[in-house]
Amino acid sequence: MNSGKDGDEARSGESTPEEEAHWPAPTAAAPIDVRVALPGSKSLTGRELILAALADGPGTLHAPLHSRDSALMVDALRDLGTGITEVSTDHVFGADLRIEPAAELTGSTSIGCGLAGTVMRFVPPVAALALGPVAFDGDLYARKRPMRPLLDALRALGADIADEGRGALPFTVHGTGSLRGGRVELDASLSSQFVSALLLAAPRFDEGVHIVHTGSRLPSVPHIEMTLAALRARGVTADSPAPGEWRVAPGPIRALDSVIEPDLSNAAPFLAAALGAGGSVTVPGWPAETTQVGDQLRTLLPEFGARIVTHADGSVTATGDGPIRGVSLHIPEAGELAPTLIGLAALAGHGSDGSDGVVSEITGIGHIRHHETDRIAALVAEIRGLGGDAEELPDGIRINPAPLHGGVWHSYADHRMATTGALIGLVIPGVDVEDIASTGKTLPQFPELWRRMLGLQSERTAAPAFGGFIESSGSEPSDPLAFVLPPSSDTRFWA
Ligand SMILES: O=C(O)C1=C[C@@H](OP(=O)(O)O)[C@@H](O)[C@H](O)C1
Ligand SMILES: C=C(OP(=O)(O)O)C(=O)O
């Protein structure tokens, strides 16, 4: 795995110079009918890596994500003494991972967080269990992402952390090999990851943890439920005794072999493409039950006019055969999906598709100002840059119908900004996405998958680091199955 640990520039380790600059987003020439298989969930891969590193024996992750964020997590846990090796398999998105927990976690190291919220939040509590100082830093913008509530909570639980009052990266956790734990108050209104971070390491705290959220709002609740479910799957006693409170009992974390579900949040731009291009997009391997917030796409996309069918074989199809409708959505739990939904809302208002010109408002997402960039400010600026009419709300965005035109769409090093630019470019000719390589954070295959989705030839002569993920059954642009996985990989990969 190439994490690009030491550089702001190196994001996916496989981008061409052209992608680093401006990527001409392909415009859909005709309705599409394609099947797009997606790699593993960032959030599940991160949690399973942490829990496997703290477990009572070795375990294997099947079908994990291989991307910049997951590589940074692997590097961080290796730096703390965990053995992580790639185990070759024949499925399409890269190797399984074999994890051998360290007998004792070791400090005296430094950890690069890139721009990964999961690394900068989930690893410090683990570092507190290591022996010796562990220095954390990340990309320049990562230093702006909030950390103070988590660092203060860790201190209250017994950790020694030096951050020179910054409440942000860089900081050093002086691990002593153990942490007392216990009851702690924490304001998680800026990020649910503060809660998940403490819960994940808490079985190894002397007293476990009892977190009491003190803020007036709580974003991304499904991600906290995902954390509790991952802990319980490993035999840990973990619950929520009251709204805004969570408890984890001290005890062993059971080693196990886990299968990572495909990333349903990364399904968002692809399913949304059915609305942009017209036609159908099918994502295979959709779990029948999941804690991933991306599952909500099945109810959110119909708000924009999509038809969704969940098939018995575990695939989900989105079909778009009419104008994109304006929406009024309040989605505090689904901020991760907001950039794609906002992109659709901008298209609903662009005025040349026969849409009814309804104003869209998407609210409850103030916390996405603290994601990879201030996503509300960035989306407003970029939609306006293409001639659209968008304005910031205190906790969201309003989009008034307006025709869009081509131009440069800036990514702000944010993978979901980049994919949103690609989505708009499906409909609006002449959109150039700056830094499409930022998609390497969670989906290095994005440019390739997107072009293949449209029946376009690959930009590469050979897919380098993540090759073999598509089995083209013809690659004629008109072939509706130009983009499928072979059935054998399908069953193996999504089992
Ligand atoms: O725990 C996780 O894996 C995540 C939690 C959410 O963070 P916030 O609560 O900061 O929104 C989500 O947006 C992020 O992409 C992943
Ligand atoms: C907010 C996101 O990432 P992170 O895990 O870095 O917070 C995201 O992927 O949309």
Automatic annotation (TrEMBL):
Keyword Ligase assigned: no
Domain Enolpyruvate transferase: 29-448
Compositionally skewed regions (Basic and acidic residues) per UniProt: 1-12
BP GO terms, sorted: amino acid biosynthetic process; aromatic amino acid family biosynthetic process; chorismate biosynthetic process
InterPro entries linked to this entry: Enolpyruvate_Tfrase_dom, Enolpyruvate_Tfrase_sf, EPSP_synthase, EPSP_synthase_CS, RNA3'P_cycl/enolpyr_Trfase_a/b
Keyword Transferase carried by entry: yes
MF (Gene Ontology): 3-phosphoshikimate 1-carboxyvinyltransferase activity
Residues engaged in binding phosphoenolpyruvate: 42, 117, 145, 193, 375, 416, 441
Binding site for 3-phosphoshikimate: 42-43, 47, 191-193, 220, 336, 371
Reaction catalyzed: 3-phosphoshikimate + phosphoenolpyruvate = 5-O-(1-carboxyvinyl)-3-phosphoshikimate + phosphate
EC number: 2.5.1.19
Location of the region described as Disordered in the Swiss-Prot/TrEMBL record: 1-28
Entry superkingdom: Bacteria
Pathway, per record: Metabolic intermediate biosynthesis; chorismate biosynthesis; chorismate from D-erythrose 4-phosphate and phosphoenolpyruvate: step 6/7
Signal sequence region: none
NCBIfam families listed in its UniProt record: aroA (TIGR01356)
Subunit structure and binding partners: Monomer.
Protein name as annotated: 3-phosphoshikimate 1-carboxyvinyltransferase
Organism: Leucobacter luti
Source organism phylogeny: Bacteria, Bacillati, Actinomycetota, Actinomycetes, Micrococcales
